[in-house]
Amino acid sequence: MLLPFKDCPALAADEVGRDLARSSPSSAPGPDMTPNSAWKRIHRVAPHLIHDLHAPLVAHGLHPPTLKKADGIVPDKPGKPS
């Protein structure tokens, strides 16, 4: 039986929508190979679904391998060295 993770604030439903709104629909898919455009479509059709799937993971401190890895690209700033 999993106990709640005490030090973690609850995941708010509006956080999912805000994060998806800021993400680029044309960005490369993450380790789960699901592009952001698919997540945005899912959220448009069933706004509660993504929150309902992720909230228990956050509440219990579970972090599946696909949520532990992220690929990031830092672009060069104009006029600054690489």
N-to-C SSE string, H for helix and E for strand = HHHH
What percentage of the residues does DSSP assign to strands (E)?
under 5%
The average pLDDT is: 80
Number of strands: 0
Structural class: mainly alpha
Low-confidence stretches: none
Helix fraction, binned, reads 40-55%
How far do the termini sit from each other? Answer: 49 Å
Walk me through this protein's architecture:
By secondary structure, the chain is an all-alpha fold. The protein has a domain at 12-22 and 35-62. It is built from four helices and no strands. The chain has helices at residues 13-22, 36-45, 47-59, 65-68. Helix 2 (36-45) crosses helix 3 (47-59). The longest helix has 13 residues, at 47-59. 1% of the residues are buried. The model has no long low-confidence stretch (mean pLDDT 80).
Summarize the SSE layout with pairings.
Blueprint: H1 13-22, H2 36-45, H3 47-59, H4 65-68
Helix pairs in contact: 2-3
What can be said about this structure in brief?
With 82 residues, this protein is mostly helical. The chain has helices at 13-22, 36-45, 47-59, 65-68. The model has no long low-confidence stretch (mean pLDDT 80).
Comma- or semicolon-separated keywords:
82 residues, mainly alpha, 4 helices, 0% strand
